[in-house]
Every structure is written in C-alpha cells, then in structure tokens.
C-alpha cells in the first residue's frame, strides 16, 4: 500500500470532531444535546446578504479575480476605514474563509522546520495550518488566573530562535474571549520589531466586544507596516460561516505578492458568496447593536450561572463568544465523552469542547472546557444546570 | 524587514497572469482582444443551478459538513454511478474547487523534498500545489507529434526514486486535449502497482469528449483501489467555475481519513454553491448534448483554420477544450506579448497562452501555444485570421 505523508500523519484532529461520534450516541438514545461546543452562531444572517443571493443576476457562474472582486475589495476597505482601520483595497486578498487567509499567510512565511509562537490556549486549527505548511507551533502559556492576558514578553523571548518566523495572536481570542489592550499590542510590536519577525493577528471576532472596550487592530500599530499580517472573515460578523469568505491583509508588498501566487494557484474565491458579502457591508448598525446586546446578555447569563457551580473557575470574557471554564473534574476529555455517552438529566445533556485540544503543551487544560455562548439565554441556563448536576454525578462514580 | 519563505519565493507565477498587464495595454489602446488564453467557458450555467441559488431558503448561512453536505455527496455518487464510475458517497470529500482537492491530495502524500511525476506539458498550477506542499514536479516529456500520448512507461521508470510519491495525470488533458486510452491507463496502473506509489487523476474535463470516444476513469481500474486518487470539479461540467466546488475521491481509507484532517482544518466548502451543485445534477442530458456538439464544432473549426496557416503543427484534440499548437515563430512568450503590446489587425488582436509555462523542462514548448476554444465559431475564425496575419508581420520584423 502506498505511503501517506508524515505531514498527513501529524495533522492534528479537531478536538471537537473527536467527540462527534459520542454526540451521535446521545442522539440515538433520544437525548437532547445542548451544543456549547461550537462556534456556529444561531444569529440570523443579515437579510440584505440573503437577498443579494436570491436576486443574483448571472447566467454564467464565472471565476472572479484571484484577489476577489475589486468592487468587493473597495467596499471592504471603506468598511475598515469607517472602523478607523487604514486598509486600502490593494492591501487585501479575498480568501475562502479566514482559514485560507491563514494558510496563505503561513505558506508565505514558513518553510519546513520553521516555527510560529502562539499564546495558548489557541484555536486548534492554527496547529493544523502550521503542520500543512511544514512548520510547527511553539506555545507560550497564558493562564486562566489572568483571564488569559498576554504572557510576559520575556516568556516569548525565551522561545525565539532563528527558526521563529512569526507571532500569531487571535484578538479577540478564541477560545479565551480575551481582548488584547493597546498596551499589550505595543509590547508585541516592539518584540516583533526587535527580532524582525512577523506579527499575524486573527481578528475575525473584532465586532464582538462588550462593556465599552475598544478593539485595537494590528493594522493600526504605527511603523509596523512591514511586519503585520491581518486575517479577517465574514463568518462571525454577519453569521455567514458557510459563505467561506475571508481576507488576508498586509501593507507588506512582498508578502502580498507572494500570497497572491498562492491565491492565483487556487484560481478564485467563491463568486456568489462574494456578492452576498459585498451586499452585507450595507448591513445597518442596528443589526450589530442587537447582536452585541444579545451576546452580552448571554455572556452575563452564562458566567453568572457557571459561578453558581462550586469549584468552577471562570473569568468574564471581554469579547468574542467563548469562555474557558475550569471545572471540578479530573479530566474534561473523559468528562465530555461521559456527558454524551453515559449521562442525561431528564433526557437532556450538554456537549462541551475539552480545552486540552486548545493547548499544545501536553497536560495543559485537562480540567478546562471551552464554552461557546451561541445559544439563547434560556438554553444557556438549562445547559449550565445540566452541567452542574452532571458534575455531581460524575464525581460520585 | 522580516523574511518570506523559500517556498513562497519558489511558487511559480501563472504563465497566463504574466501576460495580463499587456492585455491591459491592448485594451487601453482601444483594441479588441480575443481571449484564446483562458479556460473560462462562455457556456451558460444550467438554469436549474442558477434557480437553486435564487430560491435559496436559508436564514443563517451555516457551515456545512467538512466533507460537504451528505445530500450532495449521495446525489453525486448517483451521478457517477450513472456514468459507470463506482464511487460511494463515503469515498468523497467535497472541496473548494478541484484546486483544493489537489492540495489535499498532495498534502496527504507529499513531504518536504518528495516528488511527483507528471507528463508535460501539464496544467501549470500542479507545480504551484506541489511547491505549496513542499515537494516538486518531475516532468516526463510527451510530444506534439504523438498528440501528447502517454510517454513510454520506461521513461517514467527512469525517473522513479524513493522520493517519488505519485504519478499525476490530467485526463482528458489540459493543456493537450489528449484522452488516455484504457490501454494507457492499464500501463499506468501496472507501473504504480509495481512501485507502490499513488496514481492521481485530474478528471475535471471528463464530460468533454468528442468523436464517440469514451473516458476511462481511474476509478474503474480493477485492483487499484488503494493507489488511486481522483480529482473532479463542477467548474467545466456545468460552466460553474466560480462555484469553487470540486471533490476528492478515493477508496483508500487512510488517504480519505488524512485528507479529512485537512478538510476539517478549513471547516467546510461554500454552502450556497453546494446547494447549486446538488441541483445541477438534475441538469437534463440535452444540455450536455448541446454543449458537446458546440465544442466539437468549435474544435473542428479551430483546427481547420489553424491548419490553413503555413508552418503550424496541431493535432486534433480528442477531448477537453484546449489544444497545443506549434507556431512558426521563434518564441511564443515574446510573440504573445508582442500580439498584445504592439500588434493589431484592424483594431483587433488575440491573446494566447505561451506553452513554455506548461512545461517544467527549461526550453520546452518555446514555439508552442495553448489555445482554448471557448469562443464561438465566428470569433474563433476571426481570431485565427488575426493570428495568421500577425505571424507574417512578426516574422518580417
């Protein structure tokens, strides 16, 4: 039998997907499963985007430009400018989701054996994309006690080698819900300048910020134009995860010219979905106000409920729609599987994402879970109630 | 300034894109440019697919399954079965275009320094995808005199090393229009079995076969289930290039499980376009009959006209909608650029794809061009007339 690649063997499996067969078991038993594990919002896509799809006026579904439709890029640059983020349409390549933007970014800067440093816990697919690019992730630990604030710069410096090509952050953070301050961003800026490496910021949750905080985009750091690569996506902004439209943004011309070669090789991002995304830019502010208010309410509800469980440690996230909670159980991989396979509370159970999958340091996050607050408040209250009862039962067996 | 990757530096630029700035020059001069250079058909997308988009009934544009919607995969497997190609829905992963299927296939089997052997001339992006996967393409030369038939198996064997992971063919061929016979496929089958390597077949032009020939799919080779990976796409079948929907097909469970890790990392293929593709499977046979008849007519016209030019060598292609023509000029890179930059025939000129970009052996294909017959017959006749006049002028300066 012919051999598959080492790269293929090393590609990590999604920590959430591993649980999927057990969710099937729960469903086969007729149990209702509350999904606290996923990043698929239940928020409606703006009507203006859906209508653009319904009103599509094409007789041939042609390739678009490899960098994406120019009309979309121009409108997107206006969108950023309104947010006080200085991005020209020539600074961006429209990608097939934020995922492809990450792949292009890592392909552009990483060779076999190269490294990128990422504060952990981090979005599990960063590891997959690094592996696909022949490189690896070097984690720097952030802790639940600080709410997953930026680790000390000295901790990053200990890990920098000649193979280090970039520092990658997710801001706001998935899975942490942490929002880096301007001061933290400036510390990172000084660091990447000092070592002349890239700073990649995944800003796909940039809209989801609560309590009057503001998002400080990596694109706004003065004097860092050559070092910065931003990744963005419409997936969460407009609840258009299935559109698979993202973008790669940089002022570094060499980065953009190189990423463009990757973009040309795959021809173009999807045509219909780009049209929907262009229309979505005219989504009224009231849409976001409602969405943010809804998420803020869910967050407050979730955190209040979680804090009622003895032994739970959770810090109220500032942004995005995730939190990491430490549970009074021995091992959340086992616990999450048990919840689906063996537990129900009046015919209902919950699915959570064990946090070990968001760490690359072995042994980290073993008693933590990621909870996505993408359910309505009533369901969140019910879910945490189930979780509370389940912890009692789990710890008594 | 931080450094980009060697991989990024090595990524080849598309041979056609290099000419794009010169096409702009021609257009700025007010010249009409006939595009013989591109693979974007002018054929209408089936109405049934466009209507599926217009009638979309979604309020949230959600992620689909990472392997694509199961309903689409099941229907697609029925489509293949009608074509006597035995593919189950579990043997496929829906990808973002045939491009992503190629990337998944190469990522699954290639590590840094690995090689794949491809008969040249070949679709230029195969090089790009190999580079992105850390490997490289080893070409085996096929010749215009044989119409680009399969090179002797002994020529392949000379190139096989422990680093050889696969043989990749495009069948029917872009840019050659060649259709491999069952006998040629059997020769390849014996070869990959002997050396226990993969056989990857890009079959995206499988529908475009003229003169009563039949396509012998790589999936139908008996006993080769573990060695075969097929790449397909809706781009040409339904003139839906912009949908970016393709698929990766294999009966090898390890290949599929590994490719699935790449698929999960990028989450899912586009949702709306998958719905359109599922609907497209019900496209009536009459659509294909018309399209094939149209292309056959175009091919016959093109070849007849090209043969009227003294010094042109071209063999009538059996399939797809391309041919490679040898022109009586010194260098088609220079000639193609000159056509756009400096030539016009009554205000009109043509854009062709210099064939050197489809070879990886330096110096090959220098007097060849790829012509795509994706224009109507009248325009094809006019284009070749311009080409004929242009060759005269070019050779007299």
Automatic annotation (TrEMBL), chains A, B:
CDD domains on file: AAT_like
Species for this entry: Flavobacterium psychrotolerans
Protein name per UniProt: Aminotransferase
Cofactor: pyridoxal 5'-phosphate
Pfam families assigned to the protein according to its UniProt record, in alphabetical order: Aminotran_1_2
Keyword Zinc-finger: no
GO MF annotation: an example: transaminase activity
All residue ranges annotated as the Aminotransferase class I/classII large domain in the record: 33-343
TM ranges: none
Gene Ontology BP terms: amino acid metabolic process
InterPro entries per the UniProt record, alphabetical: Aminotransferase_I/II_large, AspAT/PAT-like, NHTrfase_class1_PyrdxlP-BS, PyrdxlP-dep_Trfase, PyrdxlP-dep_Trfase_major, PyrdxlP-dep_Trfase_small
Source organism superkingdom: Bacteria
EC number: 2.6.1.-
PANTHER family from the UniProt entry: AMINOTRANSFERASE (PTHR46383:SF2), ASPARTATE AMINOTRANSFERASE (PTHR46383)
Key words of the record: Aminotransferase, Pyridoxal phosphate, Transferase
Lineage: Bacteria, Pseudomonadati, Bacteroidota, Flavobacteriia, Flavobacteriales
Top class in the EC scheme: transferase
Family note: Belongs to the class-I pyridoxal-phosphate-dependent aminotransferase family.
């Amino acid at each position: 039998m012919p051999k598959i690649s080492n790269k293929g063997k090393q590609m990590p499996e999604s920590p959430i997907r591993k649980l999927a067969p057990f969710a099937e078991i729960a469903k086969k038993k007729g149990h209702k499963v509350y999904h606290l594990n996923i990043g698929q919002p239940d928020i409606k896509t703006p009507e203006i985007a859906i209508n653009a799809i319904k009103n599509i006026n094409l007789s041939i579904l042609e390739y678009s430009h490899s960098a994406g439709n120019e009309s979309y890029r121009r409108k997107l640059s206006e969108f950023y400018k309104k947010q006080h983020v200085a991005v020209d349409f020539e600074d961006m390549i429209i990608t097939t989701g934020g995922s492809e933007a990450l792949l292009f970014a890592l392909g552009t800067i990483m060779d076999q054996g190269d490294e990128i440093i990422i504060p952990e816990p981090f979005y599990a697919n960063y590891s997959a994309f690094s592996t696909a690019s022949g490189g690896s992730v070097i984690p720097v630990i952030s802790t639940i006690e600080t709410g997953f604030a930026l680790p000390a710069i000295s901790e990053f410096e200990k890990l920098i080698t000649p193979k280090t090509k970039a520092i990658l952050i997710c801001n706001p953070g998935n899975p942490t819900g942490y929002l880096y301050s301007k001061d933290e961003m400036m510390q990172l800026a000084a660091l990447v300048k000092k070592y002349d490496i890239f700073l990649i910021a995944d800003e796909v949750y940039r809209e989801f910020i609560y309590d009057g905080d503001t998002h400080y985009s990596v694109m706004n750091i003065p004097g860092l134009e050559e070092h910065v690569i931003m990744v963005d996506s419409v997936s969460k902004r407009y609840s258009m995860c299935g559109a698979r439209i993202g973008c790669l943004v940089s002022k570094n011309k060499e980065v953009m010219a190189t990423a463009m070669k990757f973009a040309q090789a795959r021809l173009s991002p999807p045509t219909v979905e780009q049209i929907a995304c262009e229309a979505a830019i005219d989504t009224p502010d009231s849409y976001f106000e409602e969405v943010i208010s809804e998420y803020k309410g869910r967050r407050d509800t979730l955190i209040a409920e979680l804090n009622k469980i003895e032994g739970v440690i959770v810090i109220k996230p500032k942004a995005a729609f995730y939190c990491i909670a430490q549970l009074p159980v021995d091992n959340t991989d086992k616990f999450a599987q048990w919840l689906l396979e063996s537990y129900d509370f009046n015919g209902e159970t919950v699915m959570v994402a064990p946090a070990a999958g968001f760490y690359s340091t072995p042994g980290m996050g073993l008693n933590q879970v990621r909870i996505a607050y993408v359910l309505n408040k009533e369901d969140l209250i019910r879910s945490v109630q189930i979780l509370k009862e389940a912890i009692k039962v789990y710890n008594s067996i």
